[in-house]
Amino acid sequence: MTQHTSTEKPHSKQWSVHLDLFEEGDLTKVHAVLDTGDTTLRSRASAQRNPHDTPVPEIGDEYAAGRALIDLGNQLLRAGSTDSASGDLAVPG
After folding, report:
1. Tens digits of per-residue pLDDT, 51-84?
2. Are strands 40-48 and 16-24 parallel, antiparallel or unpaired?
3. What's the pLDDT score for residue 93?
């Protein structure tokens, strides 16, 4: 097992995700916001209940929120890739 011997001070950050969910009949919509303190990413997604399925609003919430979170994750991966490729590796002091 390798020990960490860096003289750099450890740091921590807190990112917040806020989800607003809206029910409109058989349609669930979500607006997701990720705030990193440096950047804000936004996503909108939805889920449509099959009219033949029993109405269970929680399921629509889960699908819509999951889709929005996946989109936020993809946005983060693209941003990291872009920053890495451009050499934008500056660390705030």
Report:
1. 899 989 899 999 999 999 999 999 999 999 998 8
2. unpaired
3. 45
The SS3 of residue 42 is strand
For the residues 20-42, what does the mean pLDDT come to?
96
Task: Sheet with 40-48: list strands edge to edge.
Answer: 16-24, 27-35, 40-48
Tokens at 14, concatenated: 């807190």
Residue 60 burial class via C-beta count within 10 angstroms: exposed 0-12, middle 13-18, buried 19 and up: buried
CA distance 2 to 5: 9
Angle ∠(58,59,65) on CA atoms, nearest 5: 85
Q: Which residues pair with 34 in a beta bridge?
A: 17, 41
Nearest to 70 by CA among 30, 38, 39: 30
Please say whether the beta carbons of 25 and 60 come within 8 A: no
In the numeric block, the tokens 């979500």 are attached to 30
